[in-house]
Amino acid sequence: MVCKTVMRAAVRSTSLLGSIPVLALTFSSAVMAHENNGPQKPVHASSHAPIGVMGEHMHKKGEWMLSYRAMNMHMNGMKKGTRNVSPNEVAQTVNPLGGEQMRMGTLPNGNPRIMTVPGVYRISPLSMDMQMHMFGLMVAPSNDVTLMAMLNYRINEMELLTYR
User: Of 45, 97, 153, 157, which is the most exposed, with the fewest CB atoms less than 10 Å away?
Assistant: First the structure.
């Protein structure tokens, strides 16, 4: 029996403690963001690296910067090396962990819920779409330290083919 399943998930990575690269310090050994241009020389965006390069500059005391980045990704089909692979071929692929026991949580009576891993893969991905929105803030409490925080919001959607 074949079941087509669509999984949708909105993933919010909002915890500053839950992700190591979210908070970073940039020290004075990095290139300064704004040189001493004086009042007659305005600072332009071209004085920084492109937005995809993170942590490449510092700000002067009291300066701050907000950023927003968006990313869309679509994937479909599967490959084994350079060869296309069908969902049926995936379902016939031997699972190297097949037959092993795996703990899958706890039953209401407190006993572990044990599952035997199937001998072949039973789920085949068909396609995946992802959107990511990332908001950033850089603040300089001094000329020697620039703090950077990032908050991202992701939406993942995956279409799967399940064999029973």
Answer: 45
